[in-house]
Amino acid sequence: MTGLRIVVMGVSGCGKSSMGEALAHRLGLPFIEGDALHPPENVAKMASGTPLTDEDRWPWLARVGQALAAPKGGAIASCSSLKRVYRDVLRREAGENVIFVYLHGSRDLLLSRMQHRPGHFMPASLLDSQLATLEVPGPDENAIPVDCAEPLHPALERVAELITSR
Questions:
Q1: Which residues of the chain have pLDDT under 70?
Q2: How far apart are CA 26 and CA 69, in angstroms?
Q3: Which end is more exposed in the chain, N or C (fewer Cβ atoms within 10 Å of the end residue's Cβ)?
Q4: Which pTM does this prediction carry?
């Protein structure tokens, strides 16, 4: 696939990295781990249990969008993209035709996943603030919803088919 710009989005614990890496492999595109583009101050803030502010997020979102735009053949990035205005930044930086793969799930499932993943900087205590911030993508946002309770491989194949058939 060439020229595709895909963002795998959702709150922490929904499986953005797993879906993003698998989808990148399936479509033959590079994968960009959005969390790796956070400045150290953002990581330290989240690790201490303090939610990020919009001011914390703007430079990070611009960096993710620019990284997504860089590969000429297209790319896939993981990025929470919780608010429409955040997705607007990604579209402005990466191109209007960004496809969002919106991973969502029950609070209980997300909390369980967060509590059982070793070595991640994002504490489970921030899940509720992320859920409160989340604005579900609108029908005009070129988003593919995926219930993260669905097993990865069937979800991956369905998403890949929807993307390649566009």
A1: 1-2, 114, 116-126
A2: 19
A3: C
A4: 0.91
